[in-house]
UniProtKB/TrEMBL annotation:
It comes from Muraenolepis orangiensis (Patagonian moray cod). It is found in: Golgi apparatus membrane. Gene3D superfamilies: 3.90.550.50. This is Hexosyltransferase. Residues 1-20 form the signal peptide.
Amino acid sequence: MLKATFKALLILSLMTISLGFTLYANKVQLSVTLSKYQKYRHLCNGTNETKKPPPYRMDPNRMSVHSNLIYPGNYHFILDDTEVCRSIIPFLVLIVPVAPANWKARDAVRKTWGSETRVQGELVQTVFLLGLPSSGNIVVQQEHVLKENLQHHDLIQSDFIDSYHNLTIKTMVIMDWLASRCHMVPYAMKIDSDMFLNVENLVKMLKMPGTPTKEYATGRLKSQTPVVRAKDSQWYVPEDIYPERYFPTYAVGMGYIFSLDMTRRFVEVSKSVPSIYVEDAYVGLCMKMLGLEFTPPPNRNHFRLYLFEYNRCSMSTGITHILKSPEQLMTYWTNLKKPGPTC
Ligand SMILES: *[C@@H]1O[C@H](CO)[C@@H](O)[C@H](O)[C@H]1NC(C)=O
Ligand SMILES: *[C@@H]1O[C@H](CO)[C@@H](O)[C@H](O)[C@H]1NC(C)=O
Ligand SMILES: *[C@@H]1O[C@H](CO)[C@@H](O)[C@H](O)[C@H]1NC(C)=O
């Protein structure tokens, strides 16, 4: 009992410190922050909030009720003390959406591609974006997040509930963070934590003559993707939300790149884009609404999907591969960095 009280006090003081930082850095009005703080505390009160099944599955039409749920202006940053885009202005920001509890994946990224900060003479920085813990022991998870950030200062946390069906919110919060902090930065990439990323090849591609510096978005493009209408699918989209049979062309969500000017435009247009929970198709809808098209990558093989077994040649020539686990990322990375021929 006493231990629990002490723990709660510790978390509370840590939260106060991080809120203090946010307050100081963003000059947010005290009252606004305090009400957010109350909301947030309530969520961390070990309630059964988290045991609810995702409302999306129970009642897909909920989405139309919350049609404005995705607009990132609805959410606030509760942890945001990274120097990235403050004192450090990189050429490329790698921003990784990750669940609060997935510290293992963050560690693997920090030890592999996230550690590549000087590439082709350019500065590259990696940060992680998290929502609030949504299941499991949320108090312990939040405590871990705060401690981890004290050590690395690379976590950005917003006050939406971090869950699978909130991935579109997460993506738009990423856009919002970039738009409001990183306007001096030429490019950003949204990249999942379970990816292998060849930063060298990515920067080379971005520095190639002819790569657009404005209105640019690229990745593994997917066209004519049918909209899923099976109600039990995790990708189900109700017809009244989005009536078309196909999605417009979009870049597969595992990792896509955009020039920074796009971020503000995505945020603005998200007020009028149908709220679908398929995050990469949503970005495609934003592009379409803006009257813009994705730029195909110079080489389609740059953005690969699953890699079933280690392939040194493919990893050394491509940009992305989807992996199975943080352990696999560490093993493959170590192997690739060994001297010797790659192909
Ligand atoms: C936390 O939960 C306890 C018991 O469920 C309740 O009495 C208390 O008011 C809650 N505190 C907050 C801040 O919600
Ligand atoms: C949460 O707990 C309260 C009582 O502690 C209970 O009345 C309520 O039904 C629970 N909600 C869910 C969704 O389990
Ligand atoms: C998504 O986040 C919003 C805002 O935090 C929350 O109200 C909603 O319950 C979340 N949805 C799911 C499915 O977690």
